[in-house]
Automatic annotation (TrEMBL):
<keyword id="KW-0233">DNA recombination</keyword>
<dbReference type="GO" id="GO:0003677">
    <property type="term" value="F:DNA binding"/>
</dbReference>
<dbReference type="InterPro" id="IPR013762">
    <property type="entry name" value="Integrase-like_cat_sf"/>
</dbReference>
<dbReference type="GO" id="GO:0015074">
    <property type="term" value="P:DNA integration"/>
</dbReference>
<dbReference type="GO" id="GO:0006310">
    <property type="term" value="P:DNA recombination"/>
</dbReference>
<protein>
    <recommendedName>
        <fullName>Site-specific integrase</fullName>
    </recommendedName>
</protein>
<dbReference type="InterPro" id="IPR011010">
    <property type="entry name" value="DNA_brk_join_enz"/>
</dbReference>
<dbReference type="InterPro" id="IPR048120">
    <property type="entry name" value="Integrase-like"/>
</dbReference>
Length: 508
């Protein structure tokens, strides 16, 4: 049951205050509400309801107040936007005292094909209005509303079409992003908090609001009997139905040892930050906001020191933009957003053979219907790469991280060899001066310490990798065959650079 209104007294009047589901007190008598939520400030302007009489405006205000108290601020904001669009279309010559069936039907007929799902959304909001028992709807609308025919919103087009700006990242783009993240962190251009935030977003596909709401107490590190560590992060669930506020339900996620250690270090830094700023360490956010003094209202909903969901979303977009990863499909910087990361997680899970229910669990969907699109498009997810295409897109993929060098006979640096049935050739040197235990030479081409020689037989290695990929694609499937795609592109870039260097020498 929603909480009872709270009556407060002032010198001039007695006012009845209400408390939102998140715990924020507001005055429903005001014409403009600014409601703090975990996602950000939700604004409600009841002066901006064109065509509504004073009576209808009050009815709409009563509906929104009830939704704020019993369901969620986001649902109330969506309802107000839907009512406003309806009233703008109705454009009555005289103010309306009630919404009629004819107003709703004409609004639906005016919508373009791609916007007709809005009538369904409006119907859902009007049904809630009826359920609340608030006046403002004509009797004819009451009777016809349950039988009103509407269209569902077609979802999944960005995934089905592999949209270059909004759809999931290809494997090459994904590897480019994660490689750039590691490179920038190793170079000190990304701090611990930013790198951890990016890594969680990419690995778990968590929504910005889920990242913003995380507290240090949500993370735990324990040990198995064999001494190995278990890292668990409790991720708050969202969109779980009426009256379920953030940080009410959680889904545990086990983290890999590398990611777990990263989050553990960030939690230690966040606890130190909370102590310095006089905030309760037990309630410290994993990702503290440096601007928290500008958002004191967050304390009223139990999120003092936290980013808003909108703040995390903006931050993620800025961080990805700084990585300057270029798409091999467009030749332009990748357009990155949190929703693309979620679509990428679903796409990669489907390519690994996961079922729709498993993908729904990974994406924190309550129903697996939304996850079916990933399974349906599974076969179209992995590109076919031949030599011509590899040479063409290699510079865009930016997979090669080393530096070309002229062959020398010095003893500095470990020699890297390409071993084949025909030859045992030195192809470059390792600038790390140490054994990294990775599989040379394949791992070398994507390493920044590698110095491939200009006159080495890199093209023979490229041909061998492409032949192996083709054979695996025939005998197994493209997912298995694509395991070395990033290396193929790195070798192809070296081949292309060596050709360019040869042409320059000949021209000179």
């Amino acid at each position: 049951m929603p909480e009872q209104p709270i009556r407060t007294s002032t010198r001039s009047c007695n006012r009845t205050m209400s408390r939102t589901l998140d715990g924020y007190l507001f005055d429903p008598a005001d014409d403009i509400w600014k409601i703090p939520t975990a996602g950000g400030i939700a604004s409600f302007n009841f002066d901006n309801l064109p065509g509504a009489s004073t009576r209808l405006r009050q009815c709409i205000k009563d509906v929104c107040a009830a939704l704020l108290v019993s369901i969620s601020p986001s649902r109330a904001a969506q309802a107000l936007s839907a009512y406003r669009r309806l009233l703008r279309h109705a454009a009555p010559p005289h103010p309306l005292d009630a919404i009629a069936l004819n107003d709703v039907v004409r609004y639906g007929e005016s919508l373009e094909v791609r916007q007709r799902y809005r009538l369904r959304r409006l119907k859902e909001h009007l049904l809630l209005w009826v359920e609340l028992g608030t006046p403002g709807l004509d009797v004819d609308l009451h009777r016809a509303l349950p039988r009103l025919v509407t269209q569902t919103h077609e979802v999944g087009n960005a995934v089905r079409m592999m949209d270059v700006d909004a759809g999931p990242l290809t494997d090459i783009e994904y590897e480019g992003v994660t490689t750039a993240m590691r490179r920038e962190f190793a170079a000190g251009h990304l701090g611990l908090a930013d790198y951890t935030l990016l890594t969680l977003a990419v690995t778990l596909g968590t929504r910005p609001l889920q990242l913003a709401a995380m507290k240090c107490k949500d993370f735990s590190a324990t040990q198995r009997q064999d001494g190995s560590s278990i890292f668990i992060l409790q991720v708050t669930r969202l969109k779980q139905g009426k009256g379920i506020r953030p940080r009410t339900l959680f889904r545990p996620r086990e983290l890999s040892s590398g990611l777990g250690a990263l989050v553990q270090a960030q939690c230690k830094a966040a606890a130190d930050w909370a102590q310095r700023h006089g905030l309760p360490v037990g309630e410290a956010p994993i990702f503290p906001s440096a601007q928290f003094t500008r958002t004191p209202h967050m304390a009223e909903i139990g999120l003092l020191g936290h980013f808003t969901g909108r703040g995390v979303s903006d931050k993620l977009c800025r961080l990805f933009q700084k990585l300057e990863v270029v798409s091999h499909r467009t030749g332009k910087p990748l357009v990155m957003s949190p929703i693309r990361l979620r679509r990428t997680l679903g796409t990669r899970a489907a390519a690994e053979g996961c079922s729709a229910p498993v993908i729904a669990d990974l994406l924190d969907h309550s129903w697996f219907d939304s996850s079916l699109v990933y399974v349906e498009t599974r076969s179209a997810m992995i590109e076919r790469i031949d030599k011509a295409l590899a040479l063409q897109i290699a510079p865009l993929a930016q997979a090669f991280a080393g530096t070309l060098a002229v062959r020398d006979d010095s003893s500095e640096g470990r020699l890297v060899h390409h071993v084949s049935a025909e030859a045992f050739d030195a192809i470059g040197r390792c600038g790390k001066h140490d054994f990294c235990r990775l599989a040379a030479p394949l791992a070398c081409y994507t390493c920044s310490y590698f110095h491939p020689w200009i006159d080495a037989p890199h093209e023979a290695l490229l041909d061998g990798l492409l032949s192996e990929r083709s054979a695996l694609a025939t005998s197994t499937d493209l997912r298995v065959a694509s395991v070395n795609d990033l290396t193929i592109l790195a070798v192809a870039e070296v081949v292309q650079r060596c050709r360019d260097s040869q042409h320059e020498r000949e021209a000179a």
